[in-house]
Design goal:
CATH architecture: 3-Layer(aba) Sandwich
Number of helices: 5
CATH class: Alpha Beta
Order of helices and strands: EHEEHEHEHEEEEHE
Structural class: alpha/beta
Number of domains: 1
Shape: globular
Number of strands: 10
InterPro entries: NAD(P)-bd_dom, NAD(P)-bd_dom_sf, Polyketide_Oxido-like
Helix content: 25-40%
Pfam family, one: NAD_binding_10
Strand content: 15-25%
Distance between the termini: 29 Å
Protein name: NAD(P)H-binding protein
Largest sheet: 8 strands, mixed
Amino acid sequence: MARVLIVGASKGIGFETMIQALAAGHEVRAFARSAPRIKPAPGLEIVRGNALKRDDVAAAVQGMDVVIQALGIGLADMIGPVRLFSESTKHLIAAMETHRVRRLISVTGFGAGESRSSINLIQYGPFVLVFGRAYDDKSRQERLIKESGLDWTIARPGVLTNGHRTREYRVLVEKKQWRNGLVSREDVADFLVGQIGDRSLIGKAPVLVY
């Protein structure tokens, strides 16, 4: 069992990951600006903090074995410049280096980094129009992670749904396999929790879809 920090634990993939990590017996530190909305549970430490504040992140990382980064933004936040993903990652990497925490599991998305070239022509225009700024920053985030020297795994889920955990998702590691598709937040969380004790995908950035 591991001591796991989940960055962005109050909602979405981060919240589902928190639930599943606790169920798996891990000790979890849930870190988010809206952390007070999280209900207390055995094995859970709730920490309110801002991923864009260096001192908050450094304090959250201390004493952990594994960090799962699962930040997200709403559509309204994509209208202007987006820097959340890359700026928070800079603070996170620095904190992990300071506290000698090696294992980083991070969520970006299909369309980040080199996976953008796998978006088909029909989807490409709408994707760039709606999600372009956010995914440009996710690409910067991925680059920082890959250059960090940490033991990293990046998860690139397709279109997220509110479906239940099925464990029937595909983990597409090879570029020739990459494609868009649906996947539930609960199944993404299942993958992330599985990576806590699995080192086979270190240095890999698979796409997750059904």
